[in-house]
């Protein structure tokens, strides 16, 4: 376990993002895509990129973002979320999980493994609001170009766009790396960054 007083610059992070079916009356919102990206010592690398099985006849909200319509056959044949859990849990257990608005990712993980808890989480949405309170939007797809991070993101995850789980996880990791490079942020501990 990573001690809360560990300097953030020395901490391994795993940024993750789920894309879901969205809200449809009478149906639970299910994750259909997962992206996870590691960040350690300033280095950002893909850790996990997968579709998650959603039955072919399961409804998606008409407002659900992402490219799910083009990939319904692959999503229906993808591994079950619990099968992917065996690969995801060791990543998260050895690092500090990061997400842009952690509520969504924590909710999905709690449904997958109700008794598993990660004591420290970093929320880049909360941190970006602290670092850049005057920006008109703190949505990930607005922050990345506003902070000049789009070229690095497109080079890291070519051919993908916002609301793709891997692309958004990488955007989150690059945003955290950027925040940790700001004056004074390099002295913060993981507890300073962590969300309740």
Describe the structure.
By secondary structure, this protein is an alpha/beta fold. Helices cover 36% and strands 18% of the residues. The protein is built from eight helices and six strands, in the order E-E-E-H-H-E-H-E-H-H-H-H-H-E. Strands 3-2-1-4-5-6 form a six-stranded mixed sheet, sandwiched between helices. Helix 3 links the parallel strand 4 and strand 5. Helix 6 crosses helix 7. The protein starts with 12 loop residues before the first strand and ends with a strand. 37% of the residues are buried. The model has no long low-confidence stretch (mean pLDDT 95).
What is the fold's blueprint, element by element?
Blueprint: E1 13-20, E2 31-40, E3 43-51, H1 72-76, H2 81-93, E4 96-99, H3 102-112, E5 121-123, H4 124-131, H5 140-146, H6 150-156, H7 165-180, H8 190-193, E6 194-195
Parallel strand pairs: 1-4, 4-5
Antiparallel strand pairs: 1-2, 2-3, 5-6
Helix pairs in contact: 4-7, 5-7, 6-7
- Label the overall shape: globular
Q: Which residues form runs of ≥5 with pLDDT under 50? A: none
Helix content: 25-40%
- Based on secondary structure, the structural category is alpha/beta
Q: Total helix count? A: 8
Strand order within the widest sheet?
3-2-1-4-5-6
By DSSP, the count of extended strands is 6
Portion in strands: 15-25%
Measured distance between first and last alpha carbons: 17 Å
């Amino acid at each position: 376990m990573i001690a809360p007083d560990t300097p953030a610059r020395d901490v391994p992070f795993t940024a993750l993002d789920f894309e879901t079916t969205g809200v449809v009356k009478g149906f639970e919102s299910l994750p259909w895509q997962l992206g996870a990206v590691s960040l350690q010592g300033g280095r950002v690398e893909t850790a996990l990129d997968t579709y998650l099985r959603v039955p072919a006849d399961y409804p998606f909200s008409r407002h659900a973002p992402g490219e799910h319509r083009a990939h319904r056959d692959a999503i229906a044949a993808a591994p079950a979320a619990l099968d992917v859990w065996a690969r995801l849990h060791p990543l998260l257990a050895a690092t500090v999980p990061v997400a842009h608005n952690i509520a969504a990712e924590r909710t999905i993980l709690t449904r997958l493994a109700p008794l598993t808890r990660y004591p420290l989480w970093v929320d880049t949405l909360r941190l970006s609001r602290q670092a850049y309170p005057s920006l008109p939007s703190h949505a990930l797809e607005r922050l990345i170009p506003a902070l000049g991070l789009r070229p690095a993101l497109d080079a890291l995850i070519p051919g993908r766009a916002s609301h793709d789980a891997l692309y958004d996880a990488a955007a989150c990791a690059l945003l955290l790396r950027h925040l940790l490079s700001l004056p004074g942020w390099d002295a913060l501990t993981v507890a300073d960054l962590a969300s309740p």
